Amino acid sequence: MTTPQNATLSAEVSDFILNCFVRSPGWQFWLSLPLSILCVLAMGANATLLTTIWLEASLHQPMYYLLSLLSLLDIVLCLTVIPKVLAIFWFDLRSISFSACFIQMFIMNCFLAMESCTFMVMAYDRYIAICHPLRYPSIITDQFVSKAAIFILTRNVFLVVPIPTLSARLNYCTRNIIENCICANMSVSRLSCDDVTINRVYQFACGWTLLGSDLILIFLSYTLILRAVLRLKAEGAVVKALSTCGSHFILILFFSTILLVFVLTHAVRKKVPPDVPVLLNVLHHVIPAALNPIVYGVRTQEIKQGIQRLLKKVWY
């Protein structure tokens, strides 16, 4: 009798099995506690930030609307990945349905790309604030944020939809065990009986087109910002100018560093344990989500004061 846990199926696959750290069972125990703490921290910190920006009229400004969008993306990404990973660790619930797997694949790819695009728009916001401060109120408006949000959504949904669509159209007739904790595109596609060259090429092209173009524009924005800052001659002007974009730059480092390490680890996967890329893939969905609101909350005086007023209302 054939069971879902078997690697060979007599019919087409109806669900998948996530082989999450089965080679390193000790990892499951030690990772479950920090992952659950990071997940709760990410949910709480982002919810607090969103609530503060929503309730504080002084924070109803384009920069904070963009930050709200980033927090919303972080919450969705975290909820898409971490609860399922913890369910595997705690209850051994490794099975995931065919449709749920490809929905998770779409959300992960789309929302990561949307987060990258949001960072790019925020970099442009900082560029205008530093390099063209007098024109900032007329350029970075609520209407600009609305158009930016539509662009972020449209661009990434349009380009990412083919990734899960191409994978879902493949025939999964022999294997159903995914060597990963999540439904990553190539981890799933390589289980197919069909040729996956198109899937591989499209994901590579899409990834570099979206994330690559965003990183180039972010780098260009900060190059222009740095050049403008170095021309400032007023005492303390350089420190003040850099402090206005310091939080944003730190968030970009969190996002890009983990992503870069993940890419490099995949490039030399024969020289590292196979569970290392899997771990980095999971952490990339929770560490930035947990740290982003904390960095802005600590470094931005207006947000810090807003959170303090919110807490006073709750407690008193």
TrEMBL record:
The G-protein coupled receptors family 1 profile domain is annotated at 45-296
| SMART domains linked to this entry | 7TM_GPCR_Srsx (SM01381)
**What's this chain's function?**
Putative odorant or sperm cell receptor.
Record's subcellular location: Membrane
Its lineage opens with: Eukaryota, Metazoa, Chordata, Craniata, Vertebrata
The protein's name: Olfactory receptor 56A3
Q: How does it sit in the membrane?
A: Multi-pass membrane protein
Q: Which SUPFAM superfamilies match?
A: Family A G protein-coupled receptor-like (SSF81321)
Keyword Transmembrane on entry: yes
Q: Which UniProt keywords apply?
A: G-protein coupled receptor, Membrane, Olfaction, Receptor, Sensory transduction, Transducer, Transmembrane, Transmembrane helix
A Gene Ontology CC term for this entry?
plasma membrane
For biological process, the GO terms are: cellular response to lipid
* Highest taxon, organism lineage: Eukaryota
Task: Identify the InterPro entries for this entry.
Answer: GPCR_Rhodpsn, GPCR_Rhodpsn_7TM, Olfact_rcpt, OR51/52/56-like
Recall the GO molecular function terms of this protein's record: G protein-coupled receptor activity; olfactory receptor activity
Record bears the keyword Zinc: no
Residues annotated as transmembrane: 33-55, 67-90, 96-123, 144-163, 201-225, 237-264, 276-298
